[in-house]
Structure formats: C-alpha cells, structure tokens
Design goal:
Blueprint: E1 4-6, H1 11-16, H2 27-37, E2 54-64, E3 67-71, E4 77-81, E5 84-93, E6 98-108, H3 111-118, H4 121-124, H5 133-154
Parallel strand pairs: 1-2
Antiparallel strand pairs: 2-5, 3-4, 5-6
Helix pairs in contact: 2-5
Length: 155
C-alpha cells in the first residue's frame, strides 16, 4: 500500500449538507475505512522493497453526502444532489517512482434510491436522516473494489 489521502470537503459543501453526521463522517474516518477495506502490505522503507515492487496509491478526491436543499427565493428553487465519491488510483514503480498507470472511479447513488430516501415520512418529519453513513461507505467500497480490480488487471 502506498500513499493514502482524503481531500477535505469545502466549508461551503459542508454548510449546504448541514454538516451531515459531522462526528462519524470525517476525512480521518474515511481513511480508516479504506485501511480496513484494503489489506495490502505497506512498505515502510523503499530499501526493503524488491526491484520490481509496485506501490498502490489511493486518493479520495471528492465526496458528498447529497442534499435536498431549497434556496430561499421567490419561488423557492430546489437544489438537489445525490451522494457520490470519486477515488483516484495510481500504480507507481517504487525503484524509480515512475507512474505506471492511473485510474479514477466515480460512484453515485442512483437517483431512484436517493429520491426514495428523501421522500420518506421519517425524513420529512425529521425522525431520521435521509442518507446514512452506510450509504457513503457502500459507495466507497464499490469504488475501492473497482480500483483493486483495475490494479489486478494491470499488474
């Protein structure tokens, strides 16, 4: 396993998403999830690596929880976006830091699923959130699976 990074969400997106589940869904939480999903050996020192060793870098470039927000105007304008995650992958030869290949995986919640979640009575009356943290975790797992499958074919 090589570099692992999560790009933080902007303050504006956090505001629009009402900082959804702020305690549970942090950048550090996503890093921990990735490490729990992918169990590749990590190379602490490049001196230990064999000549043909390859590093697998993972970057969560963008993620949103989605939000059904109405802009306060006359008439109100709905602004709706669904949960999504974009994860970038790189295969790097450790010996000379040469990038062998790059790949990007984008995973979105389907519109039908998203709309069925935001139009439930539990969400409308405020008893439960429309999107759970498990929804984003599922999208992350799908993106990682797609990236690992891509890397397996490349190596």
């Amino acid at each position: 396993m090589g570099d692992l990074a999560v790009v933080p969400r902007s303050a504006f997106i956090k505001f629009l998403e009402l900082n959804y589940n702020a305690k549970e869904n942090t950048d550090e939480h996503l890093r921990e999830l990735i490490l729990s999903y992918i169990s590749l050996p990590s190379l602490d020192a490049e001196k230990e690596a064999p000549d043909n060793a390859i590093r697998f870098d993972v970057l969560v470039a963008n993620y949103t929880y989605g939000s059904p927000v109405a802009l306060f105007s006359n008439p109100p304008l709905p602004v709706i976006w669904r949960p999504k995650i974009r994860v970038c992958f790189r295969l790097v030869q450790i010996r000379d830091s040469h990038v062998l290949a790059k790949f990007e995986s984008k995973q979105y919640m389907r519109w039908r699923e998203f709309l069925s979640k935001i139009f439930t009575l539990r969400y409308i009356f405020g008893f439960s959130p429309a999107i759970s943290s498990e929804d984003l975790q599922r999208l992350l797992a799908l993106a990682l699976l797609e990236g690992l499958e891509w890397a397996r074919k490349r190596v």
